Amino acid sequence: MSRSIKKGPFVEEKLMIRVRRAQRASSRNVIRTWSRASMIMPEMVGLTIGVHDGRRHIPVLIGENMVGHRLGEFAPTRTFRGHVGRSDRTTSIR
Question: In DSSP terms, which residues pair with 41 in a beta bridge?
Answer without folding.
Answer: none
